[in-house]
Amino acid sequence: MSLPPCIRFLRDYVAIPSVNPMRRDDVPAEIAYERRYATHLREQLRGLGLDAELVGEGERTSVVAQASVRGARDTVLVASHLDTVPVDGMEIDPFDPRIEEGRLYGRGSCDTKSGMAAAVAALASVLERGTLARNVVLVGEADEECGSVGVRDVLARLGTRLPDWVLATEPTELHIVTAHKGIALVRLAAHGVSCHSSEPRNGRNAITAIARAVLALDSLGNEIGTRQHPKLGRPTLSVGLIGGGQAANIVPREAWLVSDRRLLPGEDEQHVRDELRGALARHEVADVTIESCVVEKPALETPDDAPAVRVCQEALARLSLPLEPTTAAFSTDAGLFAQAGVPGVVFGPGSIAQAHTAREFVELAQVERATEFFVRLFACS
After folding, report:
1. Number of independent structural domains in the chain
2. Pairwise CA distance, residues 315 & 321, whole Å
3. pTM of whole model > 0.90?
4. What residue numbers bound the domain in which 249 lies?
């Protein structure tokens, strides 16, 4: 069966493991991290005549390449993350890109190696025809699924030479996404005094303290849930991890929890810290401190009439694809680029309903349509 370049590229990419360990230490080295995939892309892009290089430390490497043309309309950065989530519980071989009934199966096929395949195939076609009309910075960034260290490495490499706008490829079913919530991870620590459990009054129970903190955060979640963003709805707060103690017969001296806080545009680390301090104080929670509060991905909010949106709509209109901007429930690296001064959108083939699943797949027709979109975007035709 003869396959179009975008599908051949996707098949090659899925066969290269690039699993993000997600702070775990049990992911086998032969499938962990992004370097193998980044190196493959660097060589492929150099084969197109581009100046492609790896950035980042150790195995957490990203790739950056640029295609330039005299008299370019503008410069777009197309960012497609290299990492995938782990493969535990998958019902298919994660790295055997099987094609069946118009779908390609495998880890990362949807999220988001299909976006990279479409962009690379389109860029190759445009360069071969000599029709490039805007500068393109093609980026494969590491660590999108966890801490986004790759975006920070890429931004450091670009320095002050920032592009005009960014398009982050994610599974949006070929819709333009202009807004999504951000993610902050909060860790609270409780500090008690250990003693024998037969005389618990001689100590201070850290688990009891962290339990009070859970109730305070539950109340805070209800409070912030009364706010309403016109596009994104309500912010949220959820306690997802909790632990502590040493043994059943020891009053615990330490306990902890981790909370996921989904951010609306304008909410930052200081905003979240102030909310938490206020909630703990109102509920008179003692012996609990905010150990860390990290915004892993800022919220994204690009005006619907922004140049980036209009440019994408021009390309979509020629393909009779949906033009109306929409929102996403998930977060992306576009928020980090926007925070750094590069506004943008999210767009790509595939459905988020298939991302991270036991039988992850992408519809081949969507990958081909995404390739056509990128051809028109890069050639401005």
Report:
1. 2
2. 9
3. yes
4. 182-296
